[in-house]
Structure formats: C-alpha cells, structure tokens
Amino acid sequence: MARAAALTKSKESLSRERIELAALELIEAEGLAAFSTRKLAARLGYEAMSIYHYFPSKGHLMDALIDHVIGELPPFPDASLPWLGRVRSLGRDVRRAFTRRPNLFVFVATHRMNTPRALAFLNRSIALFEEKLPHELAVRVFRSVSYYVMGASLDETAGYARGPSTVEPVSEETMQRDYPSVAAAEKFFKPAEFDETFELGWELMLTGIAALARRFEEQR
C-alpha cells in the first residue's frame, strides 16, 4: 500500500516539462546516439511506457525538444529598435541557444523546422528581413544568414574542435616545417577563439546586409 501510494505521488509529479528537461540533460550527458526513452524513464524513476503517456513516440518527444530550445530564445527585439541591431541580436541569440546544447544541436540542424512553434519563429525571422528588403531578396538573405549561423554553430559543437583526427597525423616538426601557415593558425581554431571569430564574420555579413538594404531603399 505504501509503495503504491509512493508511485501514485511520483506519477503526479511527472509532466511534459519535466520529461523534456530530463531528456535535454540526458542527451547532453550521454550523447544523442545513446539517448533512448528507456534511459530517460529510468532517469526519472519510471517505466518506459510512462513517457508515452505524454509523448506518443520518440519522434514526438524530439519535436518537443526542438520546440523547447526555440522557446528558450529571447523575445524578438522591439520593433522600435534599429533594424540592423535587431538582425544582429537575432543571429547572436540563435547561436547562443543552439551551442549551449551541443549534442542536441546536431539533430536540430538537420531537422525540418515545421512544428507550429518553429514555423512561428521562422515566419517572424523572415518578416524581419522583409522590413527592409523585397521578398525574394529577404528570403535569400535569411537563408544566407542561416548558413552562417548554423554552420558556425555546427563547427563549434561538432566540427573541427570535436571531430575525429586522422589515424597518422603529421608530427609537430613536420607541421612547422612544411605547413607553417597552418601551424601558426592552430591557436585560432580553439574553442576560446570561437566568439571573436564568429563576431568578425557576423559583422562582415551585417555590413553586406546593410548595403543591400540601402541599395533597395535608393531604388524605391
């Protein structure tokens, strides 16, 4: 009787939010490949079938995790603020939200953003570019920005710094002698340099976007 009461009390504390948070923690702790609803349920102190009471399938849960990460983004900057500053903030906010969950981001980057919450985010993002650019150009610029922000985030979370190495890497001596530019550049590939490198590229891209917006304004 006491055990049944304890189980009932525990089940009452289970929720979609608690499951999502535990799933995010588990994925970052053990990696996406090792993630399963069985492990998730065990982490929560439940049987695996308990998860399916809230999410019909693992796919539904993964959709919810993407929505959860999108929900962690700061609100869109107020429309009264300068347009380019709002674009700048959007890129920074997206990168920050995605790179703080590196193991999940590999999944996010290759998953279609077609849940209502994801579509609402995409819709507002495209609309931001449409404020200063004609529709086709706005979409292409948005896509270009996505390439940069998503690509940079992928590189930071699963790319050069975390990727596998060749079986027989060249020696440090050979590197210094035959590939001096690569040897000298090595320090700039380290995680401590990610922010500065991203900001440099982001500002270059923003300069180009601002020039396009001015050109369109002059032609109107």
Description:
There is one protein chain. Helix content is 69%, strand content 0%. It is built from eleven helices and no strands. Helix 2 packs across helix 3. The relative contact order is 0.08.
| Poorly predicted spans | 1-10
Q: How many DSSP H or I helices?
A: 11
Strand content: under 5%
Q: What does the average pLDDT come to?
A: 92
Shape annotation: flat
Number of extended strands? 0
Largest sheet: none
Structural class: mainly alpha
Radius of gyration: 22 Å
Distance between the termini: 77 Å
- Helix proportion: 55-70%
SSE order, as H and E? HHHHHHHHHHH
Summarize this structure briefly.
With 220 residues, the chain is mainly α.
SSE blueprint and pairings:
Layout: H1 2-13, H2 16-30, H3 37-44, H4 58-71, H5 83-99, H6 102-109, H7 116-130, H8 135-158, H9 172-178, H10 180-185, H11 194-219
Helix pairs in contact: 2-3, 5-8, 5-11, 6-8, 7-8, 8-11
Descriptors for this entry?
220 residues; mainly alpha; transcription regulation; transcription cis-regulatory region binding; transcription; TetR/AcrR family transcriptional regulator; Tet_transcr_reg_TetR-rel_C_sf
